[in-house]
Fold this sequence. Notes:
Layout (H helix, E strand, L loop, with lengths): L1 H10 L23 H7 L7 H18 L5
Helix pairs in contact: 1-3
Amino acid sequence: AQVLAAVQKALGTNIKPKRMKPKPGEVYRFYLDCSKAKRILGWKAKIPFEEGVRRAVEYYKRVHKTGKITR
């Protein structure tokens, strides 16, 4: 739900996902938890999750529009 909400916000839409039957071997659910990386490696995110999603959406919009993959 958090991922969907962040993507909807970044896209400026309220579109609902189309639920389909999972394909064989497809992961039904996944959970994002960086606590192990923090505990073992001392890792910490440099940017908040929603900001990362916003940047990713902007990047893919730019690639789609220009056809150019950039850093």
